[in-house]
Amino acid sequence: MALYEHVLIARQDISPQQAEQLNEDMKAIIEGLGGHIAKIEYWGLRNLTFRIKKNRKGHYSLMAIDSPPAAVKEMERQLSINEDVLRYMTVRVEELDLELSPVLARRDRDRGDRPDRPERPDRGDRPERSERPRDDAASA
Predict the structure, then answer these.
(1) Where are the beta strands (DSSP E) in the chain?
(2) Tens digits of pLDDT across the chain (140 residues)
(3) Domain assignment present for 137
(4) In-domain check, residue 42
(5) Domain coverage including residue 91
(6) CATH number of the domain encompassing residue 32
C-alpha cells in the first residue's frame, strides 16, 4: 500500500461537528476499501489566503493515510461531488509523519504558560507612546 498526506478545506458555513463528520466519512471510505488512517488532525476554522467560492475562511483537516491508490481515488471522487468541500490535496509521501503537525504544535505552544518569559518585554529607556514627540514632518 502507498502512503499519503491529505489536506481538506471545508466551507466556513458548516459547524466544526460537520467538519469532523466529513473526516469520519472519508475514513470510512478508506477503511472500507482496505486502507488505514494513521492520523486525523482537525485544525479548526482558519483564514484563507484568498477567497474560494466566496468563502474567506475554511475548516482545515489533515490526514495521514496508508491505503491502496484505488481507495484514495474513490475518496477524492466523493470529495469532488461534495458541496461542503472547497479544496483538497493528496500527496504521496515516502513515510508518514505521525507527530503533531506544526499547525497544532504552534497552537499548543501559544496556549501554554511561559513562566520564564516576562509579561511585557523590557523597553529600556524608550518612553511610552503618549510621551514621544510627534513627527509632523512625516504626516505632511
Answers:
(1) 2-11, 36-52, 55-67, 85-93
(2) 889 999 999 999 999 999 999 999 999 999 999 999 999 999 889 999 999 888 899 999 999 999 999 999 999 999 999 999 999 999 999 988 888 878 777 776 666 555 555 555 555 666 666 666 666 655 55
(3) no
(4) yes
(5) 2-96
(6) 3.30.70.60
In a domain, 69, yes or no: yes
Strand 36-52 with 2-11, pairing: unpaired
Number of domains in the chain: 1
Task: Give CA–CA dist 68/72, Å, rounded.
Answer: 7
The DSSP output letter for 75 is: H
- Note the pTM of the prediction, 2 decimals: 0.71
CB-CB neighbours of 86 under 10 Å: 20
Farthest-apart Cα atoms in the chain, separation: 70
Provide the 8-state DSSP code for 82: -
- Residue 43 within a domain: yes
Instruction: Quote the cell numbers at residue 113.
Output: 504558560
**With contact defined as beta carbons under 8 Å apart, do 6 and 22 qualify?**
no
Torsion sign, CA atoms 105, 111, 117, 121: positive
Note whether 64 and 5 are within 8 A (CB): yes
